[in-house]
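Our consortium's second objective concerns turning raw sequence data into structural hypotheses that experimental partners can test. To show how far this objective has progressed, the report includes one record in full. It was chosen at random from the queue rather than selected for favorable results. The single chain below, 280 residues long, was entered without modification.
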Amino acid sequence: MSQPHNDKTAHAQATLSLPEFVTLMALLTSLVALSIDTMLPALSMIGDDLNSPSMQHTHMIITLFFFGMAFGQLVFGPICDSFGRRFGVYLGSLIFCLGTLICMAATTMEVMLLGRLIQAFGVSGPRIATMAMIRDIYVGDRMARVMSFIMVVFIMVPMMAPIIGQAILRYFTWHYIFAFFFVMVLLSVLWLALRQPETLAKADRRDVLTELPERTEITLHVELSEDEITFYQALRSQAMDRIQASAKQSSARQRMQILAEITRLRQACCHPRLVMEDSA
């Protein structure tokens, strides 16, 4: 994500205690699993309310979320490197909230699917940014320890999310599931803004639009022996003689022979030794 640096040093110092940092990062990361698994108990209800033509069409609520995330991760990686980790969280969360509001107000399945795509694109921001924050602050064994704690939470969330969704549906409509997403994102972003400073210094940021990979030119020097040079020249001369001799002929057989000689000439240019052995 960031510029190459020594694996034994970190970009930033830890300002939060380890339990608080792990909890905050786990909360931001778990937004992905919450956005997927909490929806599972409400799919049939949403399909009925939005007049979905089939259950397969309703399941696109989940499927399109993965497509949106795949595209979002490609975009938010460079954004976090250029403008900082917190900016990536803020921008992604704002887009996620926009998608959430669209889903809450949806009256057709098409609008719902559009909102889910926007949601998925936005939730990629906090996910990418949190992983980058961890690498900025912790390295080596400590980073592995933090990641293991976060993975424990990340595994537990898919087990708890359907229960949360079912509990919401017991007392409210499916719209309140999206309200739950909205509140979770606001709390997470507020916590981050108040407690976690930026982990990528301005000196370490890079402009991905201007710092494109420079063109690399590779020069290949091939040394041939005198016998190989003589063979190559003879082969070229022979091919040219055949081309000139066949200029007066227009049969398909002659054209095939010319093509074969040209192919052999190209092989001699790239792999003279192989052609010599083949001719022998």
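The partners drew two points from this record. The first helix runs from residue 18 to 29. Residues 5 and 25 are 22 Å apart (CA to CA). Both points have been shared with the crystallography group to help prioritize constructs.
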